[in-house]
Specification:
The complex is a heterodimer.
Chain A (H helix, E strand, L loop, with lengths): L2 E9 L3 H12 L4 E5 L24 H14 L3 E4 L2 E7 L2 E6 L3 E9 L3 E3 L15 E2 L2 H4 L7 E5 L3 H10 L5 E5 L9 H9 L3 E4 L2 E7 L6 E6 L5 E5 L2 E4 L3 E3 L29 E3 L11 H22 L3
Parallel strand pairs in A: 1-2, 1-6, 2-3, 6-17, 8-15, 9-10, 9-15, 10-11
Antiparallel strand pairs in A: 4-5, 5-6, 7-16, 12-13, 13-14
Helix pairs in contact in A: 1-2, 1-6, 4-5
Chain B lengths: L13 E3 L4 H6 L5 E6 L4 H16 L5 E6 L4 H6 L7 E6 L2 E7 L4 H9 L3
Parallel strand pairs in B: 1-3, 2-3
Antiparallel strand pairs in B: 2-4, 4-5
The chains are: A alpha/beta, B alpha/beta.
C-alpha cells in the first residue's frame, strides 16, 4: 500500500465533486478525486440535461466528461477506487481504499445518493432481466412492448417520457393520487398518449422466471390486488445518500444525510460535504456544482489557516 | 471505417456481429469476453476502456469482442440482453459467466478468470 500525500481529496465524481476538483486544483492544491463507479454519478444515466444554465441541452455523460476534462486540465487527478474509511492522521486526514491510501489536509465528500429499491419479491432476482433503474440504458430493449415506471417524481416522469420512444405503452404506477414532479414534466407526461396513470397503487411483487412477465399491484385505497402483464419495470421511487463509510466521523440526520453549515463544513474540522450527500440538497446539477465550489473555497480557507507554511 | 485485425491492434476488442458470431465467439479455441453495448449508453462508455485494458493483459490467452445491440438484435435477443452494459464470458461455445451493469475492473477479471 502506498500512502499518497494530497492537499485536497474529493470522494465521488458527480457534478459536486468535479466542480470542487476544478476549484481546488485551480487553488493550487494537489487534488485527487476518488470515484468507485461511473464519472458523473446519477447524471451519467440521464439522456438529456436541459436545466443546467448556459447549456441548453447536453447528454449527462458528455457533461460529466467535459467537467472532468476541465478539472484535469487544471491539475486534478482521478483514481477509480472505493473508499472504505476516513480516519484522523495528526492534523490531516487519511482516506483508506481497497488499494492505495490517501492523506489530505482537507476532504470533500461528494459521494452523492443512490436509487432506492422497491424491496419486493422478484425485484433483485430480475434486475437486468426487465427490472431496471436506468431507462436511458435499457428502454431500447423493450420496443413495442408494455412497460411500467414506478414513482411520481421528476426522475420517474423524465425516464417514463424517454421510454415512450420505444415502448407501446408506459404504465405509471404511483402510490399517491398526484405527482410530485415539476409542472413542465407533468404537463408533458399527461399530454403523452402512451403514458397511462395508475394512482394510489403500489407494486407488491415482480413476476417472471428468467425475465419479467408482469407485476402484482395493490390499490392502497381499496386494498384490491391485481396482476398486470409487462415486459419491464423501471423503478424511480427516490434515493438515499451514500454515507455508510462516514459512520462515526461526521454528524448526520435521521436520513443519513451529512449536516453542513453555509460553507459546507461538517462537524469534523477539515471535512466538507457537498451535493446530494448533504442535508437539504436541492438535488440538481446546478445546485451540486454550487455546493462543490463553495466546499472547495471553504477547504482552501481552512488549509490556509490550519497549515500556515 | 472498418478496421482489420492486424498485428498492431490484436489486443484490442474487435467488433462482432450477428453474421460472424458463431465463428468468432462460439467456435473460438480460447475463452472469449463479449461486451454488449450501444452508442447511447453512458455506462457502456465507462466499461469500454476497462475491457481494452483486459484485452491487453490477457493477450494471447483470451479474445475480446464488442457487440452493438442496436445493430445486432438477433444475438442480443438470443442471450436475453435486457440491460447494458452486459459482459458475457464464453468458453468452448458455452456461457461461463455474465456481468450486468458497470462494475469495477476487479469484478470483470474475476468473471473472466472463471473460464481458466
Amino acid at each position: 500500500m502506498v500512502d499518497r500525500e494530497y492537499g485536497v481529496v474529493i470522494i465521488g465524481g458527480g457534478p459536486a465533486g468535479l466542480a470542487a476538483g476544478l476549484y481546488a486544483a485551480r487553488g493550487r492544491h494537489r487534488t485527487v478525486m476518488l470515484e468507485k463507479g461511473v464519472i458523473g454519478g446519477q447524471i451519467s444515466l440521464t439522456e438529456m440535461v436541459e436545466n443546467y444554465p448556459g447549456v441548453p441541452n447536453v447528454n449527462g455523460f458528455d457533461l460529466a466528461q467535459t467537467m472532468q476534462q476541465q478539472a484535469e486540465s487544471h491539475g486534478m487527478e482521478t483514481e477509480y477506487v472505493d473508499v472504505t474509511v476516513i480516519e484522523k492522521a495528526g492534523a490531516k486526514w487519511r482516506v483508506l481504499t481497497g488499494a492505495d491510501d490517501f492523506t489530505a489536509k482537507a476532504v470533500i465528500i461528494t459521494s452523492g445518493a443512490e436509487y432506492d429499491r422497491l424491496g419486493v419479491p422478484g425485484e433483485e432476482r430480475l434486475t437486468g432481466k426487465g427490472v431496471s433503474y436506468c431507462a436511458t440504458c435499457d428502454a431500447a430493449f423493450f420496443k413495442e412492448m408494455e412497460v411500467a415506471v414506478v414513482g411520481g417524481g421528476d426522475a420517474a416522469m423524465d425516464e417514463g417520457l424517454f421510454t415512450t420512444r420505444y415502448a407501446s405503452k408506459v404504465h405509471v404506477i404511483h402510490r399517491r393520487d398526484e405527482l410530485r414532479a415539476s409542472r413542465i414534466l407533468q404537463d408533458r407526461a399527461f399530454a403523452n398518449p402512451k403514458m397511462k396513470f395508475h394512482w394510489n397503487t403500489v407494486v407488491e411483487e415482480v413476476l417472471g422466471d428468467d425475465h419479467v412477465t408482469g407485476v402484482r399491484l395493490r390499490d392502497v385505497v381499496t386494498g384490491e390486488t391485481s396482476e398486470m402483464p409487462l415486459s419491464a419495470v423501471f423503478v424511480f421511487i427516490g434515493q438515499h445518500p451514500n454515507t455508510g463509510f462516514l459512520e462515526g466521523l461526521v454528524e448526520m440526520d435521521a436520513g443519513k444525510h451529512v449536516l453542513v453549515d453555509d460553507w459546507m463544513r461538517t462537524s469534523a474540522a477539515g471535512v466538507f460535504a457537498a451535493g446530494d450527500v448533504r442535508q437539504n440538497s436541492a438535488r440538481q446539477v446546478a445546485s451540486s456544482v454550487g455546493d462543490g465550489v463553495t466546499a472547495a473555497i471553504a477547504a482552501d480557507h481552512y488549509i490556509s489557516a490550519a497549515f500556515p507554511d | 471505417m472498418r478496421r482489420n485485425v492486424t498485428e498492431e491492434n490484436m489486443a484490442k476488442p474487435v467488433e462482432v456481429s450477428d453474421s460472424d458470431w458463431d465463428l468468432q465467439v462460439l467456435q473460438s479455441d480460447v475463452p472469449v469476453l463479449v461486451d454488449f453495448w450501444a452508442p447511447w449508453c453512458g455506462p457502456c462508455r465507462m466499461v469500454a476502456p476497462l475491457v481494452e485494458e483486459l484485452a491487453t493483459e490477457y493477450e494471447g490467452k483470451a479474445r475480446f469482442f464488442k457487440l452493438n445491440t442496436d445493430d445486432n438484435i438477433r444475438t442480443a435477443t438470443r442471450y436475453g440482453i435486457r440491460s447494458i452494459p452486459t459482459l458475457i464470458v464464453f468458453k468452448g461455445g458455452e456461457l461461463v459467466d455474465q456481468v450486468i451493469g458497470f462494475r469495477p475492473k476487479s469484478d470483470l477479471k474475476r468473471s473472466l478468470d472463471k473460464a481458466f
